[in-house]
Structures are given as C-alpha cells and as structure tokens.
Amino acid sequence: xxxxxxxxxxxxxxxxxxxxxxxxxxxxxxxxxxxxxxxxxxxxxxxxxxxxxxxxxxxxxxxxxxxxxxxxxxxxxxxxxxxxxxxxxxxxxxxxxxxxxxxxxxxxxxxxxxxxxxxxxxxxxxxxxxxxxxxxxxxxxxxxxxxxxx
Length: 150
Ligand code: FES
Fold this sequence. Notes:
The chain is an alpha+beta fold. The chain folds into two domains: 1-37; 38-148, Rieske [2Fe-2S] iron-sulphur domain (Rieske Iron-sulfur Protein), CATH 2.102.10. Helices cover 26% and strands 31% of the residues. The protein has three helices and ten strands; from the N terminus they run H-H-E-H-E-E-E-E-E-E-E-E-E. It has helices at 3-25, 29-37, 55-61, and strands spanning 50-54, 64-69, 72-78, 86-90, 101-103, 108-110, 117-118, 124-126, 135-141, 144-148. Strands 1-10-9-4-3-2 form a six-stranded antiparallel sheet. A hairpin with a 4-residue loop joins strand 5 (101-103) and strand 6 (108-110). 23% of the residues are buried. Bound molecules: FE2/S2 (inorganic) cluster. The site of FE2/S2 (inorganic) cluster (FES) has 12 residues, from loops.
C-alpha cells in the first residue's frame, strides 16, 4: 500500500466513523425539552396550572412536593380511596409553619417539628395542630402533574 492509498483509506475510515462519534457526544434533546416542560416553579398556563413533576416521579415516591412552587409549599399525593384522583395540600403545618411530609407507608402527612399528623385529605389526626392543611387543585395531563395554587 502506497502513501496515497493509505491516505484515502484513512480518510474513508474517518468519514464513516465521524457521524457516529458526533452522535455519541450529543445530548438527548427530547429529554432536555421534556425536563424544561415540566420544570417545577415554571410559569403557569392561562388556566393557572403549572407543572410540578411527572406521574412517574409521583408514583416512584408516593408524593411530589416543593417548598417554592409559585410562592407556596405544596405536596401532591394520589388519593388512597381513588388513585385516579390527586390530593394537593398546602404543606405548611398550621401549628407553627414547618413543612409536613407525606409518609407513604403510614398513609399520613407528618410534621417533623412537634408531631402533628394529618390524614390524606389534610385533616388533623394528631395535634398540636388544630387546623387542617389547606388544599390546592391538581390534575394530570400527558404524564405531567399540574397544580394550581391561585
Ligand atoms: S409546626 Fe407542625 S406540629 Fe408544630
């Protein structure tokens, strides 16, 4: 093989593998776009709903929550009585304002500060809190959990 044939062979090899190498280095644009579409705290739509997360994220942990969702602290769960229905609570404990968390294995919202507990609907089951958790509206559209806080 002379030098000219070697150069042509090298050029052909480079031309055939370069697109594969470039493709391997690119990010998955569809994933990036989907993540941006469901970014928490994004601006709300005309109907007031904004994306909090995906149904997959909700089902993986039993709840979705945010301490800064459009100025609110929210937690979303599936209703234990009807999993097709979402329950969305104001996750600030009415006692002194700590953030409650959904305890999926116990089926309740628990406050870490002084032990108040709330059922899935946000009603008090154990004090010292004496008021129920506030509620917001939520729904699912195309695998996205949407919440309206205003
Ligand atoms: S702040 Fe929740 S029980 Fe006190």
